[in-house]
Every structure is written in C-alpha cells, then in structure tokens.
Amino acid sequence: MEFKKTLACLHIGARLKAFLTDLFLIYTPILYFTTYVILGSAQAFRENQLAILSCVCVYGVINALFISKSGQTPGLRYTGLMVLDQQGQPMGLGRACVRFVLWLVVASTLIGFFTPFFSKDKRFLHDVLCQTQVKRVLES
C-alpha cells in the first residue's frame, strides 16, 4: 500500500509523459539541426562528442528557461504538472540549471530514483537537493 501511495505522490505516469513530450518537442529538433544542418551527417554527429554534449547543454538551458519562467516545460504543461520551489513559486534560472544537471546525474546513476521510497516527503534526489517540488496544477 505504501508503494502505491509513493507512486501516486510522484506522478510517475504524468512525469514520463511530460519527459517524452519535451524530448520530441525540444530535444529532437536540436539533434536534427545539429546533425544535418551543422555537421551534415549522422556519422559526423556520432563521431563528435562535443556536438552531443552541446545538444544536451542547449536542451538543459531551454528546459531551465521554461522552468524558471513559468514552472512548466511544454510537456509539464500538457500533463498538468508544475515545478515549484518550497514557497510555491517558480525558481530562478540558476537553480533550474542546477536542477537539470542534478537530474542528469540522478538519471544516469539511478541512485536518486529510489529516494522517494525512503523519505517522508516523497521527492526524487534532484528535487530534494534543489528544494523543489512537482505539483499537479488545475487547468482553467
């Protein structure tokens, strides 16, 4: 029962849907532009680690801009979720960038994905470290 309650608090389905939406709306065009307009071919992209890192950084900055401006990326808006600080306000750009970098670390190591199951506030590690929360918002 506790496991299901934790999953409900995390909005797992909505977060996954938001993530996939953002990948297709934001990250895929960045990858396409870099691969075919800047580098000219998929082979050149695969061989250029700096281009791959640059795409991730550009995506991170765009993501952070959305989060800092309104608390929502297009995917979060679509799913009705919002990232807020502890006072219920959208966070600043610097903190949003740090949250993205921490999310990359958490996602690549999988360590931080288990913290909601062992903490009372039911948040992922990157949200705990950045003192943020993901809440469902009402559509008007």
From TrEMBL:
Membrane topology: Multi-pass membrane protein
Transmembrane portions of the chain: 20-38, 50-67, 100-119
Keywords from the UniProt entry: Cell membrane, Membrane, Transmembrane, Transmembrane helix
Subcellular location(s) of the protein: Cell membrane
Pfam families (UniProt xref): RDD (PF06271)
UniProt KW Transmembrane helix keyword: yes
GO cellular component terms attached to this protein's record: plasma membrane
Residues of the RDD domain: 12-130
Top-rank taxon: Bacteria
UniProt keyword annotation of tRNA processing present: no
Protein name: RDD family protein
Lineage: Bacteria, Pseudomonadati, Campylobacterota, Epsilonproteobacteria, Campylobacterales
